[in-house]
Amino acid sequence: MCGIVGFVDKNITDKKPVIEAMMDTIKHRGPNSSGELLDGDAALGFRRLSIIDISSGMQPIYNEDRSKAVIFNGEIYNYKDVRKDLKKAGHVFTTDTDTEVLLHGFEEWGIEGLLKKIRGMFAFVIYDLKTGDITGARDFFGIKPLYYYNREGTFIFGSEIKSFLKEPNFKKELNKAALKPYLTFQYSALNETFFKNVFRIPEGHYFTYKNGKLSIKKYWDMSFKENNLSFEETVKRIDKSIRESVNEHSISDVPVGSLLSSGVDSSYVTAVLKPQHTYSIDFDTSTYEEGTAAKMLADKLGLENTRGIVTKEEAVKSIPLIQYYMDEPDSNPSCIPLYFLTKLASKDVTVILSGEGADELFAGYANYGFHSHSKVIRVVAEDLKHLPKGVKYKLAHGLKKLPNFPGRLHLYESTAKAEEFFIGQAKIFNEKEAADLVKPEFEKSRSVKDIVMRSYSKVSGYSDEVKKMQYLDLHQFMSNDILLKADRMSMANSMELRVPFLDKEVAKVAAGIPTKYLLNSKDSKYALRVAAERALPKEWAKREKLGFPVPIRDWIKTKEVYEQFRDLFSADFAAEFFDQDAILKMLDGCYRGENDDRRKVWTIYTFLIWYKVFFIDDGKKPDVDPKVLVN
């Protein structure tokens, strides 16, 4: 795994110190070695984390006549098969790396033809030394990040935004339009990041930069189309695709481990992989505990399990460092355990497999319409789904107006249009609350409806509301939160994290599964759970989803943490963004147990920490070294 950076800027005469400073900023992504290309107005840089023990794997890699070069972050799992086709076509290889396959594949088939051939996670850039043209792409799901800045003759790209700060002509400016949506979604929800004029290359897109003009085009998207297979055949296909994907994702010349929680996703991957090392994490509180269950599963499978314990002090101390690595504010509390989990694993392994993506592909979230534990409510909800649309939607409107009762939310979300209630897995502040909390200059932004309709408009023809929600989560929550933190927290510890569920062959299987096999009166993610029983003890396949539970309420209620939060909420710069009296009242009430606004408090705190790191402290890496205890 690696990191890439680069720029085109005719106003910089000595490009070497600039590209080296940019590379140094992301050294954590590739601590083993570096490489660079300087040509005319352009500079490209690369940091390498050694996964496959091949000395010729240094980048940039050039084609036969050195007219083109490539830098690449990721893994192409089918590169050996693609390499055979290219050798038959006459291409001469100087390495045995997947990186060189990208370069010759681009020569042979062009960017779109290449992207149809490959299977993997990637962000890569190909530079033409004859024309100065730059072509780059980001993988199907957005597992690997890629950002760009294109302003006043300066074009910058890279794996992490923090590297842009070292380019002299990059103008660092807060994107004021990003704050209000963030308060609702908990992550940066716009195409433009929290840094003004810095954008993401969207998942499943490629770009070309030619003669100073940037063009971005979509090459792949998830398309749900239900098949007519039996349930048994569906389960067989799921299990086969997962086993093949885990096998592809486990190829490495260094040891491969597995992150293990108590949930079915990581457990399924672990049971198929059977690695020597598995890792789990807990906090020094009895509120939540996943490590014991993970250890029990590891023992049943005959695997070694290392359990880490994170103290409250270490967790809170780590927040500025975590937000530094994240580049943009993200108040998903699971950033903390994931940071410490990969830190723990990095003592033994360099490559780790994890379970991200299963919930989006196989309908595992409660918000898809699975809130009730009552079998009666579940059965009734399944029956209501088969009503004519008009009747079903009218019933949903009635349920929405009724006083709350056990099962009401389950029935409502099983009958309502997705566009009317679902904005993704995270919803912290509603839109009015967010608008009331921020200062007037931050109120102007895209509405929540506008943001989610970017995705909903593309699936307006879907008759299945669950498929609409899955599609939205794939392009909002998963790409901008789940996968971003997975990449950042693993790379912070110089770890390569691979996600076998997010493979385009697995996606093909998932895209055809009828919703009735995924979300029904029996369970969420039902077909996947049944498939998992072929590798796991039955009780593990049926375990309820917990994610990475984090005891933030317990932390905020302790005096020392509360005082840290209050100091930040009281700071002069906090008043530039928020109604300071309102946020202090919210915090005080949470501390005294008068409200349960812990996630709202956490979201505000996270933003203020991030702003302090990047704007007050000018992007300097916080000088902390959090520890994780091994039990």
TrEMBL record:
Q: Where is this site: Important for beta-aspartyl-AMP intermediate formation?
A: E356
Amino-acid positions noted as binding L-glutamine in the UniProt annotation, renumbered to this chain = D98
* Pathway(s): Amino-acid biosynthesis; L-asparagine biosynthesis; L-asparagine from L-aspartate (L-Gln route): step 1/1
Residues spanning the signal sequence = none
Q: Where is the active site?
A: C2 (for gatase activity)
Task: Extract one GO molecular function annotation from the record.
Answer: asparagine synthase (glutamine-hydrolyzing) activity
Give the GO biological process terms. Answer: asparagine biosynthetic process
Positions of the Glutamine amidotransferase type-2 domain: 2-212
Q: Where along the chain is ATP bound?
A: L259, I281, S354, G355
- Source domain of life is Bacteria
> Which GO CC annotations does the UniProt entry carry?
cytosol
EC number(s) stated in the UniProt entry for this protein: 6.3.5.4
Q: Give the reactions, separated by semicolons, that this protein catalyses.
A: L-aspartate + L-glutamine + ATP + H2O = L-asparagine + L-glutamate + AMP + diphosphate + H(+)
InterPro entries documented for this protein: Asn_synth_AEB (IPR006426), Asn_synthase (IPR001962), ASN_synthetase/amidase (IPR051786), AsnB_N (IPR033738), GATase_2_dom (IPR017932), Ntn_hydrolases_N (IPR029055), Rossmann-like_a/b/a_fold (IPR014729)
* Entry keywords, A to Z: Amino-acid biosynthesis, Asparagine biosynthesis, ATP-binding, Glutamine amidotransferase, Ligase, Nucleotide-binding
- Family matches, as Pfam families: Asn_synthase, GATase_7
Q: What family does the database annotate?
A: Belongs to the asparagine synthetase family.
Family matches, as NCBIfam families: asn_synth_AEB (TIGR01536)
Protein name (database record): asparagine synthase (glutamine-hydrolyzing)
**Native source species:** Companilactobacillus kimchii
